[in-house]
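Quarterly update from the structural biology core.
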Amino acid sequence: MSISRGPAALAAGLALVLSFLVGGAWQPAVAAADPAPTTVVLNPDGGVRPDGSDGLRFAVNKTPGIGMAPVGSDDPYLAGTSQWCCSGGAPMLSVGGTLFGSAGPAAGGGNQAWTSVAVTSVTGDATTGAAPLNDGTRTVAGGESEATIRYTAEKGGLQYVVTRTLSYTYPNQYVDDAYSFEIPAGSTDVVKFYYGGDSAPGSSDQGYGIMLTRPVRSVISLNPSSGILVGIREMPGSKPFDGARAASFYAPYSVVAAGGDIGFEGETAIHDAGLMTQWTLGSTPGVQQAEMRHIVGFQGTNLDARFDRASVRPGDVAHLDVSIENLKLAPASGLGWTLDLPAGLTAAGAAVNSCDGTVTSSGRRVELSGAAVETADNCVVRLPVRASGTATLTAASFVATAGGLENRVGTSRLSIGKPATPPPPVKAPTVALSASSDTVAEGGSVTLTWRSTDATALAATGAWRGSVPATGTRVVTLGRSGTHVFSLSATNATGRAADRVTVRVLPRKKLQALAPTTVVRPGSAQTVTARGLAAGEKVTVLVGGKVVGRGTADASGVVHVRVVVPRSAGSRPVVQVRGAVAGRVGSVRLNVAVPEKLKPLRLPRSAIRASDHLTFDVQLLPREDVTVRYKGKVVRTGRADADGRYRVSFDVGRSWGKRTVKVTGATRDRKVTVKFRVVERCVVERPRVCD
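Predicted structure, tokenized:
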């Protein structure tokens, strides 16, 4: 097993690993480069000394030229060795199964580069410029440093933001990594965050997996040949991991690429080293925070100590967790340590001991003796403490160790925070929900709009489901006819408020429209009836394209609307009944007695013999009343048929001369007059010509 690799060896090793990845497993590819990636390095002149005394050098979005980690990867560098190789390791964000990132599984084909990566702030001994390794001529600046990097991922027109703040105190061999995750309003995708990839403890790609769970979870990849380990640790009080692995690097790659859950595993057999952690952020829009610690160190039975928080209110109790981590791969016993509590710190009660030894205290001194720890395990002594000012814990705080215990304690602080301000009284929640329409057609959509105040949670139920932001809109398509109820409830510590809207979905159909079949007068009031409606459905009535009335269907789906016939509608206007949604229409024609001259009559001939019957047709409106006058007298009355035709037939009489027929319709101004002659009948015994 090699401890370090040259380029050829790296390529050969990678090819060996990939020979196992056949048939749909993760396949490496060259990922698209991040848009203008920006590198930042904390403790840039450290990480070189073989004993680690110059602390951990930590690069983000590594550029070519230093160590094994690829471009775009993080690069923890200690004792002249890199801790990531090949596909590297870095943050990744999965949005609904689409993976964004620049290293680890995100370096594989089919994944997305970050939309943008930018360093937004740098303080202390951190640099965004060129940072060659220290050749021994430069003095390590020391002190504290911090850098903030903003990653964005865009999907479906929405922007997901990851803000990362790295903090380092010299000469610690760890970096604290705090995250803020912003899920945008309108998002419904499940969001998961992963950190990890292809680890290489001590620049070797072989590793032994260790999983520690006290006082918080740690996953560690250890190379026994190089004697160097790299790991990721939860932070007290922060979100715990939803998955953590110290196992073969490629095992979770396809799971991460698909947005799955990696589970928990510490593979104790030597394997191609890998580390991976997961936080499941869910789908609710908003901002979440979480924090982890990157640790790099040396194999051994190591002493570590840290406070369980960064600040404490005056008089409150915090805890100092002193951990013995046995990474020698063999049981360790006879272990002990002596701690002089730093200035500003006093004991606040009895210690809780899981180290199988004896804890004693006298004044400001606390001692552990006779402790034992199993292989690849740890034990913790938890000391309750109070702070009277800022207390700084360092390796020098432990004045003695026993049983081969290595003092690897870093620098940490516990400060006094401001007294807690009483929270303001909680107001009762409010919520209001509305819809753009209470009725839509099948396949139509409705826009829901809501707002709330003082709610800690909003839950949508009924025809929609899930959590929603405090305010917002959502377009919902409704395909099934019937009644759809949308409910929204808001809750907080005081109780619950709720609102709901009902949207009715109606099928598209032809309605039955009925109007008077007789001739009506312009300006008269008439009743239009529609059938086949839904109960309570609102309708609009138009005559000749103009709205003349509105109504609401009764429980049986029938509506009667009284309308005034427009004078400008013409003699045969269309009466249209429109339902509440598009596609629900019925129509019928009206017969309107508009003032007009009737069509001229066509008589069989211009001269009619005396005593003959005159027969002719008159064209009127369908079923229009008609009166026929001859020689000033009414000779016929009746009604036109459904086609508006009326046949007139009467005896012209015996007298000769010019005659007039006058036909009048439903009103006096609907008329036509035709003239003809009555002539003498032909008589054989009279020698004259008859017309």
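The radius of gyration is 46 Å.
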